[in-house]
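Write out this protein's structure.
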Amino acid sequence: RSFLRGFQEIDRIIQNSHPVFVVVWLGSVLSLLAVTVMGFGQLDGWAQGLLIAATGLYLVGVQMPTMRGNVPLNNQLQALELTTLSETALAEARESFEPSWNRLNLIRTCLCLVVAVLLILVGILR
């Protein structure tokens, strides 16, 4: 119950557009897009290709799993009234949520690392 409740509370804060979360999440998308647009004309060759690859990988590999995977899982969890669920139902709810959410989060984390490395290479190659 505590695990699920903790996730509900974290997600509730996020869904209520907590300013820090919005700045970090939306800021990462907007800043990468801005860097790509501004930097594209100043780069050539490998650096230009790596910048496009990093941006595409971030949007498709990080943001899409978030929107198509983690957010629906979070919404599913938000719909549960934890105080009325039996221990068995709580265990089932956690089992249907946690492995999928963790798998998606691991994918996003690994791809963010790849994106960071690509952006570092862009800086080195420019």
